[in-house]
Automatic annotation (TrEMBL):
Family: In the C-terminal section; belongs to the NnrD/CARKD family.
Domain of life: Bacteria
UniProt-annotated binding residues for AMP: K405, G406, P407, S408, T409, G434
CDD domains: YXKO-related
Protein name stated in the entry: Bifunctional NAD(P)H-hydrate repair enzyme
E.C. designation(s): 4.2.1.136, 5.1.99.6
Keywords: ATP-binding, Isomerase, Lyase, Metal-binding, Multifunctional enzyme, NAD, NADP, Nucleotide-binding, Potassium
Length: 507
């Protein structure tokens, strides 16, 4: 599923008009009817419904939605919240159809009248403003949004809630707080921003008939469990342990032995054939009972020899001594093995960033926003405000694969391709979750030819497992990183046995 900016959505619509010959009025009818039938899951016949209709395409959709609901026998009040002169083009055409169908509508003259209507309503549908919003709302939209947010009604939004910008880069906004949003054709960037996502509530995407094969490819998409099923490598019946990758995990210490143990165990649970651990010798006695299938190599005093391995994960629980920084630099500059750097390794990498540009073998960095802020010199706020552009700039500049972790994890390739994973839940907000993800990613890297597929699949497997566990047997409070490792077996069984909708599992 593609993810688009406002401009890219305009381009898609234009392609439909110019290349496929679809008329704007048809697309608006398709959009309004598709949204209506999507929203019906949240509406009952006894509900009193207020539809708020603004200018532009969103307002035109509103007239179609109101007409369709009235035709279906629902109790609907349609409110046009802008002057007649603002209703133009295709939206005006659908307003005329609405009137010709014998349906009345109300023009906003005072907030008091709208307040009275909202006080009687059970459902409020926001079709006021679409993807063109920039900056803070002007009147009357700002007052209407505040009024709606105060009411005890089910708030439903069309495409995106009024006031939420479609793109990243804006933080200071006031918006309609939807319980559910029916997104038209493709999610917009703001859906995946930490500060904007709550305004959408739950969501789904409706298809309106755009010519898919003719649309421009913006190389930015949502990666879901269906994509994992299509791209996950099958295990050959005649394979052996060497067929599934020999990996090395470097890190850990006497104070933090659990991190590399979880990374190694997660890698093996994800299908890696062989895993070795290089750590402080004093930590081995703590690690070995937890992961008996791993072997140990020389560690603690020097960089281990990584030749002969298919992948290396480094940094988890390593500590931040200057000696470890020299290790990271040597691995970046000298190793000829695919390299994943996480946790303390990312902190130590700061002084070796330029060396990444010269590296020809794939390098994967897996920061959370705080670690990415350290690497870039930006603030965490700046990262969260524009994660897509900052990730893309960094990955292209240094030639790395970047996995920016969060509620919406953004995976970016060195060529600028981006994928987003929205699986998982707040139960993963605990120490050790990142270590487990690194192990899964290491395993996927060694078993999948396409590295973008490997990283995208690994992220979804991690989050999907947490969702399965919370759905049955665990809560978001008690879930542990080690539970996710053991839950991977259920995930792989589920993937091989049935058709799954990822969002149906998201709490």
């Amino acid at each position: 599923m593609d993810i688009v900016t406002a401009q890219e959505m305009y381009e898609r619509d234009q392609t439909a008009l110019e290349v496929a010959g679809l008329e704007g009025k048809w697309l608006m009818e398709n959009a309004g009817r598709a949204v209506t039938y999507d929203l019906l899951a949240h509406i009952h016949k006894e509900h009193r419904i207020v539809v708020l209709i603004g200018a532009g395409n969103n307002g035109g959709d509103g007239f179609v939605i109101a007409r369709t609901l009235l035709n279906l026998g629902y109790d609907v009040e349609a409110w046009q919240v802008v002057p007649d002169a603002k209703i133009t083009g295709d939206a005006e055409a659908h307003k005329r159809i609405f009137q010709a169908s014998g349906h009345p509508y109300r023009r906003l003259k005072s907030l008091e009248d709208l307040n009275t209507s909202l006080c009687r309503a059970d459902v409020c549908i926001d079709a006021m403003l679409g993807i063109g919003v920039k900056g803070r709302l002007r009147e009357p939209y700002a007052d209407i949004v505040r009024l709606c947010n105060e009411k005890a009604v089910m708030r439903l939004a069309v495409d995106l809630p009024t006031g939420v910008p479609a793109d990243e880069g804006e933080k200071d906004f006031e918006a309609f707080e939807a319980h559910y949003t029916s997104i038209i054709e493709a999610p917009k960037l703001s859906l995946f921003l930490q500060h904007a996502q709550p305004f959408y509530g739950k969501w789904s995407v409706v298809e309106i008939g755009l010519p898919v094969k003719q649309l421009p490819d913006h190389r930015r998409r949502l990666w879901e469990i269906a994509d994992v099923k299509k791209t996950l490598t099958n295990r050959d019946a005649y394979s052996h342990k060497g067929s599934h990758g020999k990996g090395l995990v470097i890190g850990g210490s006497r104070q933090m032995p659990g991190s590399v143990a979880m990374t190694a165990r997660a890698a093996l649970r994800s299908g890696a054939g062989l895993i070795a651990i290089s750590t402080d010798p004093g930590a081995i006695s703590s690690i070995s009972p937890f992961i008996q299938e791993a072997t140990f190599v020389e560690g603690g005093g020097q960089v281990p020899d990584v030749s002969g391995y298919d992948g290396v994960a480094v940094g988890m629980g390593m500590g931040r001594e200057s000696l470890r920084g020299e290790w990271i630099e040597r691995l970046v500059c000298e190793s000829k093995t695919p390299l994943l750097i996480d946790a303390d390794g990312l902190y130590l990498l700061k002084n070796s960033l330029d060396a990444l540009k010269q590296r020809e073998i794939p390098t994967v960095l897996t920061p959370h926003p705080g670690e990415f802020a350290h690497l870039t010199g930006l603030s965490i706020g700046e990262i969260l405000q524009s994660p897509f552009s900052h990730s893309k700039d960094f990955a292209e500049r240094y030639g790395v694969y970047l996995v920016l972790k969060g509620p919406s994890t953004i995976i970016t390739g060195p060529d600028g391709e981006q994928r987003v994973d929205v699986s998982g839940n707040s139960g993963l907000a605990k120490g050790g979750s990142g270590d487990v993800l690194s192990g899964i990613l290491l395993s996927m890297m060694m078993q999948t030819d396409c590295l973008m597929d490997a990283l995208s699949n690994g992220c979804v497997l991690h989050g999907f497992t947490a969702d399965l566990l919370v759905q049955d047997g665990h809560s978001k409070v008690d879930l542990l990183a080690s539970d996710v490792i053991e839950g991977l077996s259920r995930t792989f069984r589920t993937l091989s046995s049935s058709s799954i909708s990822l969002r149906s599992l998201c709490p």
